[in-house]
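Board notes (copied after class):
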Amino acid sequence: MPNKAQFVDQLAERLDGDRKRAAAALDAVIDSVYAAIARGERVAITGFGVFERRDRAARTARNPATGASVSVPASRVPAFRPGAEFKSVAGGAREVLEQRAARTQAAVAGLADSARGTRARAAAAVQDAQELAQSAVSDAVEAVREAPGRALAAVTNSAPAKAAKKAQKRGAAKALGSARSGPATKTVAGSSLASSSGVPSRGAAKKAAKKATGPAKKAAKKAAKKAAAPAKKAARKATAPAKKAAKKTAKKTASKTVAKKTAARKSPAKKAAKKTAAKKATARKSPAKKSTRR
């Protein structure tokens, strides 16, 4: 008679050798039957049988050993009624077992194939998602790196162009205003070119052109100064340490030369003082020698 462990092994043979999965499946079936019977329900498995709960009323029974009467309280007892297929199998019909074994094996194989397909699809989806994420991250990084350069290029290109356009508009407006007001006639090369129709002369046209190009030139100069300012600052920063080092070396050499000069000035004075001291000493000694000789 197979016990539970052996029964689990038999189930594992049909479930691709997964013993844990077979034990979990058996426990799940038993637990579900327990829960349904505890609620007073019936569990009917077609062909196998029906699990149910039967209520027994209180009664009096006899002890077969002593013959005394014993009162038995009311109780609830589980019961099982086998189905037609189970009865036929118990009667020796093996065809039913073979058919059921073939069906279960086909079902298990289909489940295994579907599980493999879902795993492959999931792996492919994960790879696609990773590739998309990597491409998005790389695009974002490139955009962040190129953003400052694009902004600077846009600013440097747009500022002089805008200033030139504004200057041209101002110059054109001034030229139109002077043409409408009728400029005064001026002599060019000694001849009067005043027109009765109000057309401006060549000098007025030159002045208008200068006025139109003047703001544009100023804007271009300002833009050039702004562009050259960072380079000047960088050059100043680069030359500052060299200047400091040159100043320090100049101070050191100056202090050394001053010390040498002072030493050179002091040395003759010391020599003269030593000579005078020696002469005085000899002068003092000479009278004493003369007295001793006498």
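Comment from the instructor: Strands lie at 43-45, 49-56, 59-62, 69-72, 75-82, 187-188, 191-192. The mean pLDDT is 75.
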